[in-house]
Structures are given as C-alpha cells and as structure tokens.
Amino acid sequence: MNSTTPEIHRKRDFIILFATLFLFWLLLSNSLAVDVLIIGVVVSAFISLVFYQGLTFFTEFRLSPQAVVAGFKFYGHFFKELLRSNLSMAAIVLSPPLPISPAIVKVRTRLKSRMGRLMLANSITLTPGTMTVAMEGEWLYIHCVRLDDSDLEAATREIVSEFEPYLEVMYG
Fold first, then answer.
1. Residues 70-85: pLDDT tens digits?
2. What does the longest C-alpha to C-alpha distance in the chain come to?
3. CA gap 4, 18 in Å, rounded
4. Residue 93 half-sphere exposure toward CB, CA atoms < 13 A
5. Exposure string (b/e) for 71-97, b if CB count within 10 Å is 16 or more?
6. Nearest to 107 by CA among 136, 71, 75, 67
7. How many angstroms separate the CA atoms of 76 and 78, rounded?
C-alpha cells in the first residue's frame, strides 16, 4: 500500500459524505433557489470536513456485483423481518397475558468491518422486539422482549446469523 492510498480514501469519503448530505438537503428543502443551494453546499461541506472519517453506508463497502446483489437481498430480508417482528410484537401487546420473557443476550458476530457490525447492530435495533444495547469488538449485547431459547448459540443463530451472510459479502 503506498502513501497516497489513505489520501485517496479520505477524499472519497469526503465526496461521498458531501454528496449524501447535499442530496438530503435538496430533498428536505424542496427548493432550487440559489440561496438555498448555497446554504446547502456550505453546510454539507462543513459537516463533511468535520466528520469525513465517520461511517456512511459506503464506508468499507466492497463495490462488486456480488456485494450489490447481497445489498438488495439484505434489504429484502430486513424488510421481511421487520414486517414479521411488527406482527409478532403486535400479537404480544394485544395478548391479555402479555407473554414476554425479556433478556439481554451476548452474541458473537463473524463480521470484521466496523460498518458491517454497525449495520448488523442497527438492523437488530430497528427490528421490533430487539435492541442492541452495546457493542464490544465481536460481541453485541442485545435486549430481547421475548427470548425462547437460553442457549447462546441458538440465540446467536436466531438473532444475527440471518443478516451476517449478506453483510459479510457487502463489508467483510
């Protein structure tokens, strides 16, 4: 790896973050007036300069046909799980005996990249009934409203292993 590679990555991260922020600015402002565009450029550039090392969806993304396909599959699976979890939580809430068995589970992930782990943690948190409480290296601490199995390996398979194959292809 030569000395210009980190500089190229910094520039790429800055451009991606700037473009993303400016696009959101345009969508939220709903105006192409010159003053609105200038403010959007200035604010997006400032935030990008300050936080260019932050994580975006494309940070550490492996840009390959397999990763793009895995991305579509990941989001398809995520939305399926989101719907399933919402229906499950609705059934729990509407059930008179309120059948819950809350627990915090420590699960191990195979994911190596920061962004892959962050996407996994966010996917778990966005799915009703589960919430990532902490991340420490390869370990995630997840609060579950209902945990049917006290076995760590079974809980890991149930909670994270369905998302991991897609994220491994996308991020490593």
1. 999 999 999 999 999 9
2. 64
3. 21
4. 8
5. beebeeebeebeeebeeebeebeeeee
6. 136
7. 5
Give the long-range contacts of residues 137-143, CB within 8 A, separation 24 or more: 138/108, 138/109, 138/110, 138/111, 139/106, 139/107, 139/108, 139/109, 140/106, 140/107, 140/108, 140/109, 141/104, 141/105, 141/106, 142/104, 142/105, 142/106, 142/107, 143/102, 143/103, 143/104
Q: Report which of 100, 105, 84 is spatially closest to residue 156, judged by C-alpha positions.
A: 105
Long-range contacts of 71-79 (CB under 8 A, 24+ apart): 71/166, 71/170, 73/166, 74/163, 74/166, 74/167, 74/170, 77/162, 77/163, 77/166, 78/123, 78/126, 78/127, 78/163
Residue whose tokens read 């490593």: 172
Residue with tokens 């996407």: 119
Nearest alpha-carbon partner for 13 in 49, 43, 65, 44: 49
Domain boundaries, the chain: 4-51, 65-171
Asked if 52 contacts 17 with a C-beta cutoff of 8 angstroms, the reply is: yes
Per-residue model confidence as pLDDT tens digits over 84-121:
999 988 988 898 888 888 888 888 899 988 888 988 99
